[in-house]
Amino acid sequence: MISSDLEGVLPKEQIIHPEGEPHVLGNGGAQIIEVLSEEDISKVLAYANKYEKTVNIIAGGTKRGYGGTLEQADILLSLEKYKGIVEHSVGDLTLTVKAGTTLQEISEELAKSGQRIALDAPWPERATIGGILSANDSGPKRLLHGSGRDLVIGARIVYADGRVIRTGGKTVKNVAGYDMNKLFIGAMGTLGVISEITIKLRPLPKYEGLALLHFPNGDGENIRDFAVQILDSMMEPVTLEVLSPAMSEELMGKNAYTLAIAFEDQEKAVIYQENWVKENKPAAAELTVLHEDEARGWWMRFRHIGPNGHNDDDNEANTQAAFKIGTNNLDVIPAIETAESLASEYNVSVQSHGGAGHGISKVFIQGFPEDIVSFSKALRAKIEEKRGYVVCIHAPYALRKAIDVWGEKPAYFPILEGIKLANDPKRILNRHRFVGGI
Amino acid sequence: MFGKKSRKQPKDPLVRKLMDIVGENEVLYLKEDLVAYECDGFTMSKGMPRAVAFVHNAEEVSQIVKLLNREKVPYIARGAGTGLSGGATPLGGEVIISMVRMKRLLHVDLENRKAVVEPGFVNLKLTQSISDRGYYYAPDPSSQYACTIGGNVAENAGGAHCLKYGVTTNHILGLEVVLPNGEIVEIGEEGIPDRPGYDLIGLLTGSEGTLGIITKITCKVLKNPQGKKTVLAYFDEINDASQAVSDIISAGIIPAALEMMDQTAIHGVESGAHPVGHPRDIAAFLLIEVDGIEAGIDDQMNEIVEVCKKNHVREVKVAQSEAERELWWANRKTGFSAMGAISPDYLVQDGVIPRTRLPEVLTKIGEISKKYNLRIANIFHAGDGNLHPLVLYDARVPGEAERAAKAGSECLKVCADAGGSITGEHGVGIEKKEEMRFIFTDEEIEAQTNIRAVFNPEDLLNPGKLFPEPGRCVEVKRAKAQ
Hints:
Shape of chain A: globular
Largest sheet of chain A: 8 strands, antiparallel
Shape of chain B: globular
CATH topology of the largest domain in chain B: Vanillyl-alcohol Oxidase, Chain A, domain 3
CATH architecture of the largest domain in chain B: 3-Layer(aba) Sandwich
CATH class of the largest domain in chain B: Alpha Beta
CATH superfamily of the largest domain in chain B: FAD-linked oxidases, C-terminal domain
Structural class of chain A: alpha+beta
Largest sheet of chain B: 7 strands, antiparallel
Strand content of chain B: 15-25%
Structural class of chain B: alpha+beta
Radius of gyration of chain A: 22 Å
Distance between the termini of chain B: 25 Å
Oligomer: heterodimer
Strand content of chain A: 25-35%
Number of domains of chain B: 3
Distance between the termini of chain A: 28 Å
Largest interface: A-B, 85 and 93 residues
Number of strands of chain A: 19
Strand order of the largest sheet of chain A: 15-12-14-13-17-18-16-19
Number of strands of chain B: 18
C-alpha cells in the first residue's frame, strides 16, 4: 500500500490521511505530505516518480480552484510549512526565499530594511511566493513594476525525478544559458516544484499617493480618453486600474466606474502628479486623493476582494468563480463593460478591475453554476473577437469540468507538451492542471 | 573576374536551391564574399560558412529551414553581426540566414505602447521613429546604432539604462518565430501578456539563436521621462567609487544608469574619438543619470551627491546641456573601441557579480592583470554589477592572445566565485562555452540541452554554441584544420 511506502520516505507526522469528502475545489490528494525541507520535496518526488504516483502541489491554497481536472491525485504535496528567508542581501537588493513563505511574511521582513518585492498579488497573508509565481499572479502595480517574470532572477527547482536543478543565479543581470527561470513562472507547477526563489527587490517608495477618479456617467469613452491622456503625458502612474461600479461600491461606497491612479516617488513628484490629475481630469469626474497609510490601506482592501480558495459558499446560488482576461491595454475598458452587460444578461453578480496600461483584467462572479458557465462562454466569445483571451482562475471542481478553463490550445502546443515531457516524462506533477490538459 | 563567371554557375547544388528560394542575387557563396561572415564582434574564433542567404520574409526562412533539414546542413541566423561572444560565428560549413533585409517597422500603436518590427530593424531606429511623439525603446546596448532588434532578442541584450528599465526580455511582448522544423508560429499574439502556456517568449529571448529564427517582434515602447539629470563623480580611490555605488542603491535610489570606469579605461576613452577631459589622475569615475518627474529629480540628485561626498568624492559635475550629456555618453558608449587607441587588441569580458562584492572583485581583477602582465581596463554597469574587464594585448606578440583569453577566463572565474555569472549581456556563444561549467553542473546544463532538443532535436540550428560539449576537443581541431 502506498501509505506504508511513503512512511518509509518521510516521518509519519508529516503524512496526513484526509477523511471525508474531497475538497470542493478538487486538486486534492489521497495523502497529504507536509514537507519541511528541499530534501523532503526531493524524496517525495523521487518516490512518486519511481512508482508513477500523481502529485498535486499546494501551499496557501489560494489557487486551489485554478485549473485541474483531477479531483484527487495520489499525493498532495504541501509546501505550507516550507517557509523562511534564506538570504536577504540588502545592498544587492536581492532576496532568496523558500517557496512556502507568504507574501506578507516577506513584505514584513523586507520593510525593516526599507525594501519590498514589487508584487501586489491578492490575499498576501495566505498566498505564498511559490504559488504566486507558479500561477503568475499579479496586481495593478505591474504597470510600472512588471510581473513575476520581470522580478525572478534565480530559483532552485525540484524536478519530477527528485533532482534539484538551479536556474538563473543571484545577480540582477545574467544571460548565461537559457533563461530557465521563465519556464517555471506561470507553469502551474507542471514542470517542477519551485523550492527556493531569488528575486529582485525594490526600495519602498519614498512617498505614496492615490488619485481615485469616479466617473458617474459610466461612460467608457471618457475613461479611455483620460487614460490615453495620462499615458501620453510624462506622468509616471504606478497603476491605471479601472474598477467596475460594484467593486467601487464595495471599496468606497460609490457606485461608479473608478480609475485608480497610484503614484510612488519623492513627495514633491507625487504631489505634482496629483495636481496634474486634478487639472486635467474630465469636469464630471469626481476626485478623491489618498496619501501614505490611507493609500496603502486602500490597496490592502483592494487585494482582499474575490475568491481565495477558503471563502467558497456552500449555497449553490452563491457559487463563485473568477476569470483573468488578457487584452490590448486599452481594451481593458470595453472588457470590463462587457463583463458588466453580460452579468445582467446572465443574472450573475460581477465585480471586476483591469489595468489600462498593462492589459490584464480580473472578473469575480457569483451566481448559480449554470449561469456562470453561460456567462463564461459569452465572455470568452466577446473577448476573443478582439484577439484577447479568458482564463478561469477560480471555480469549484464540479464547475471547472463545464468551463473550458484555458480556452483553445495554442498552435504551438506540441512545443509545450515537449517541454513538459522533457521535465516530467511520467506526467506526475499537477497532471491535467494546465493548458491543453498538460 | 572569376567571381562573376562562377556566380552564374555555382557548383554547389545547395546554393542553387537557396537561390531558387530567395533569388539569384541574394545568395553569397564565393570565398571572398564569405570572409566577412567568418566571425561576429568576437574575433578570436573564425569559421567559413558554406553560403549566406538574404531572406525577405518568414515564408522564405521557413522554406530554407525545411531545405536545410532535408539536406542535414547546419544553419545560423545572423543580424548585424555585432555580437560579442561568437553567437553568429560559423564553426565551418553552416548556411548563414541573414536577416538584414527584413528591416521594416511594421506597425506602431503608441496608445497601447507597442511597436512591431522585423528582426533586421536597427535598435536605435525604433527610438528615432517614435521620438517625435515623445516615445522610446528602452534597451540601449552600446552598439545600438548598428545592432538589430532580432539580434537583441536572441542575445537578450542589455545596455546602460537597464538598471532602472530592465533588459530586452522585459520589453518583448510577442514574437513570430520559424521553428527548426520550418513551422511559422506566433507567440504572444497582439503583444497581449500572460497568454496561457509556458513563457516561450522568455525562453527564446536570450537563447542565442538555438531555438528558432525570429521573424517579427512586438516591442514595448515607453514615454520619455519628463526630466533627466546626469552627473560625473570623480574619485581618487576605486574602493570609494565602489562603495558609493552600493550606498546609492541602499539609500533607496534607483538611477536610470550608474556606470563606472577605472583609470586605465579613462586613459583609453580620453585618447579615443570622444574625449571629455576627465582628469587623468583620478582612480575612477561614476557616470550617474537619474530621470523621472522633474519635481522629484533635484531631491534624488542631492541624495546622490551626499552619498558621493561621504565616500570622499573629489568632484561632482552636473551636465549643463544636452550636448554635454551626449558627449559624456558618447565617451562611455564608445569605450570599448576607444581601447584601440591605447592597445593594438583588446578582449571584452562580461562578468556579473552581486554589486556589494565590487571592491574585492576589482582587487582580484587587478591581481590577474599583474599575473598575466597585461593591462586590464574596467568599464562597467556598476549599478547592476555587470563588469566589462577589457584585457589589452598585442596579437602580434606570440602567445599574447592566448594569455589574454586565459586572463579573461580567470576574470569570469572570480565573478562566478563571488556568487555571480559569466555573462550579463554579451551571451555565451562560442567564447564562454567552457566557462558555463563555472556556474552550472552537468545536470543543470543537461536540463537546458533537453529543452533545446524539444525545439531543435537535430541541433542543426546554430550548433556548437552556448553549452560545453564533451566532443569539444574534436571540434577545435576541425575548426583549426579549416
